[in-house]
Amino acid sequence: MTIEEFIKKIPKTELHLHIEGTFEPELMFEIAKRNNKIINYSSVEELKKAYHFNNLQEFLDIYYEGANVLITEQDFYDLTWAYLTKVYSQNIVHVEIFFDPQTHTDRGIAFETVINGIYKALEDSQQEYGITFKLIMSFLRHLDEASAFKTLEEALPYKDWISGVGLDSSEVGNPPSKFERVFAKALEEGFITVAHAGEEGPAEYIWEALDLLKVTRIDHGNRCLDDENLVQKLVDLQIPLTLCPLSNLELKVVQDLKEHPLPKMMEKNLLVTINSDDPAYFGGYMNENYLETAKALQLSKAEIATLAKNSFTASWLTDQEKEEYILQIQTLLINS
Ligand code: ADE
Ligand code: ZN
């Protein structure tokens, strides 16, 4: 079996995915048309040409603009359904996805419109595709604490639908400490906490995420390698890092996939996982992330299997579910 076949065949889980980042240009134009919204690009091709980013902020500016055409519950349903249909074809069996309510509530869309559309699609895909899921509400860190508190309030009636809270958007200048009190309240309310840290920001932000926000998973975390004590702590506690190789390449966190820190992280026994982040913008969903990474870093099938197993270990599935998937991967590896 080739590496490509092996990647396609193994069950996989995605732990770092922004639903707004799955908005494919074709669907964006379709939804804009039915909502009488104008997109600042004349065609799908023109829009795709704009997808060249020198850093996180250049991407975020386009990403928030794209999300502006989402208005109705059906729009959020269609967005989520398209993603789930795509990953079903890639043998993703479980997803833990982010949604950014403030991107929508700030422009007058009701919280319930957003979550109802996303949640219904997730429920339908569990029914139809057998994909299990968890939902993570992410706060936009460029906005203030009061806005995050208001969003947390709005989420409380949906506590049964939302497993965790996260922190995303413009990292540098918006440290985790800015949201210490919001996360304390979220923990009190029973949410699991995660945060983007060490994507562009320093190792210090990863410390803050651990110490102040009490996160049990770090999104990205690339910069942890700058601090030996931090690496030791992440290894000792087996805190998962949700890496996103194609995202890192497109946002110039790494200049070449061959320079990606993943092998070094594996060597140090960090619990690293592969994810797609914003696949509509970064040129690949899960299988493409696995394959491009494996090719660039010359990963073996055993290493790919380890990464896929790590993702189940790092997920919020039950221990029994984790064991079953890990065994399936091991069996496929042995027979490959
Ligand atoms: N929002 C969507 N993708 C993101 C990323 N890679 N980093 C921070 N915020 C994001
Ligand atoms: Zn992300």
From TrEMBL:
InterPro entries tied to this protein: A_deaminase_dom, ADE, Ado/ade_deaminase, Metal_Hydrolase
Cofactor(s) annotated in UniProt: Zn(2+)
Cofactor note: Binds 1 zinc ion per subunit.
GO MF annotations in UniProt: adenine deaminase activity; zinc ion binding
Pfam families according to UniProt: A_deaminase (PF00962)
Residue numbers binding Zn(2+): 16, 18, 196, 277
Annotated GO biological process: adenine catabolic process; hypoxanthine salvage; nucleotide metabolic process
UniProt keywords, alphabetically: Hydrolase, Metal-binding, Nucleotide metabolism, Zinc
Residues with site note (Important for catalytic activity): 220
CDD domains: ADA
Cited SUPFAM superfamilies: Metallo-dependent hydrolases (SSF51556)
Binding residues annotated for substrate, in chain numbering: 278
Residue ranges annotated for the Adenosine deaminase domain, each copy included: 11-329
Keyword field contains Ribosomal protein: no
Function per UniProt: Catalyzes the hydrolytic deamination of adenine to hypoxanthine. Plays an important role in the purine salvage pathway and in nitrogen catabolism.
HAMAP family referenced in this protein's UniProt entry, alphabetically: Adenine_deaminase (MF_01962)
Family to which the UniProt record says this protein belongs: Belongs to the metallo-dependent hydrolases superfamily. Adenosine and AMP deaminases family. Adenine deaminase type 2 subfamily.
Name of the protein in question: Adenine deaminase
